[in-house]
Amino acid sequence: MRHERGRLMDKATQTELEAAAFRRLVAHLGARTDVQNIDLMVLAGFCRNCLADWYREAAAEKGIEISKDEARETIYGEPFAEWKAKHQPEATPEQLAAFAEAQKKSHG
């Protein structure tokens, strides 16, 4: 059990709080369609697709099989191809250069 300002927090409560934070992150990313995945990767080292992969991997750890497309739909709120067509333009040369530089830093 974790302690939170002198109070005990049981594992179920911790899990509920983590799930609520996850849902809020997904909703926030859903509302911020102006923020491109490549920009998230450059600044934070993860994007919506990473989050979908982590979701799928967590399910697999519990013996639940979720496809890549199903996981992405959970994160994007619609099939990825539809979201991409509506909200994701081609990356600019500047974005690609920033991404390449960020990759060097994280792998170098």
TrEMBL record:
Stretches assigned to coiled coil: none
Domain SMc04008-like: 35-100
Highest taxon listed in the record's lineage: Bacteria
A Pfam family assignment: DUF1244
Protein name as catalogued: SMc04008-like domain-containing protein
Provenance organism: Parvibaculum lavamentivorans (strain DS-1 / DSM 13023 / NCIMB 13966)
